[in-house]
């Protein structure tokens, strides 16, 4: 239009790089095409006319948290002729109304983290990842620690639920791996650990948690129950870590591990590679961390139990066997997440794997056949209806052989042969080799030949060392005594 003041319409259009027709059109009406378009009216009647204002708005004002789908179902109940097609229209109008007239929503404030200030802990469930340990699915959790500034991570496999013992062990492993302690440690509300505890137990656990943080010079803090985003610096990384574990399991080609230690090494290596990507930030943060104390704090719960006449003790709905010579004694138990340390006074006796009661509340047993085999030799028929019989067999082959013997032989004879097999495994130290021999019998559906097994696993004479003792004549001792007497006399002189 500026060029049109001095040129004709075709020349001005050419200089403006538009067509002559567009030039004449703009000269006639300078408005944009979008400004000329008339607003499109409704093409069909409003299905919610008179319903949204009269019925929906009172529901929204009376119950602001009501879901649109619930309102839609209520309208369909009141007005069956509305039809399914109004659902999206209703949801869009509710959303627009809430944007204009609804309640204020919670705002998430992003935080700038200082190096060395905040470390966070939380547990995450891993039951759905199909990890198998020695042929048995592993129902477990991960304790996850993370530094908010550098992203340093530590993960610890937890076999039980969320507990103070699991938190204490995982947190201390993380701090000693990091090489220092932050000024503040934040966890969730520990509601899972407090579940089913009375008031005194909850207060005791709170004191223990505060004492643990105080031992490392950290301020103990918790986020509010049910407010996950207050722990957002670790809740989000949960997902990243679990996806990395899933990818690593897929690349590995199998989810089966020989033992728990192999699976823990797998997790440690994965977390170590993730930390290597943040090595510079982690090194920078280490310089701002507090010094670690000279020793770790207790990461166990200490209890006292009495060994019953049944050759064991019951703890947390789990029966544990111990050597029968301890019957009647009081034992001190250090209860860890995955093991029990057993003490008689100040003497460490043994370490037992920790068992856990079934989800249904049924009791469980942790049994070592070596603790009771001497008594079973005298009472083999006790095996028939033994409460923990299935837990007694060290390997699956032993249990299957017992079932085969019960099926083929009288009960008394089957029990006696089974006890002899267990005694042979105990006396000759051939538990694994004997299980292989029993598997051969099971494949051929033949009964084990005890005479052949005893001969096969008897001590090899070629391996027994021949000890020759040369006795020294007694005169040699007398000569030594005489020499010593002369030396003593000379010194006195």
List its traits.
four-stranded antiparallel beta sheet; 5 domains; 493 residues; 45% helix; alpha/beta; Nucleotidyltransferase, domain 5; five-stranded mixed beta sheet; 19 helices
Description:
Helix 13 (about 370-380) crosses helix 16 (about 410-430) and helix 15 (about 395-410) runs antiparallel to helix 16 (about 410-430). About 45% of the residues lie in helices and about 15% in strands. The mean pLDDT is about 85. The chain has five domains: about 5-35, no CATH class; about 50-100, no CATH class; about 120-285, Nucleotidyltransferase, domain 5 (2-Layer Sandwich), CATH 3.30.420; about 300-365, no CATH class; about 370-460, no CATH class. The protein is α/β, with parallel strands linked by helices. The strands form four sheets. The protein has a five-stranded mixed sheet with strand order 5-4-1-6-7. It has a four-stranded antiparallel sheet with strand order 9-12-13-14, with no helix packed on it.
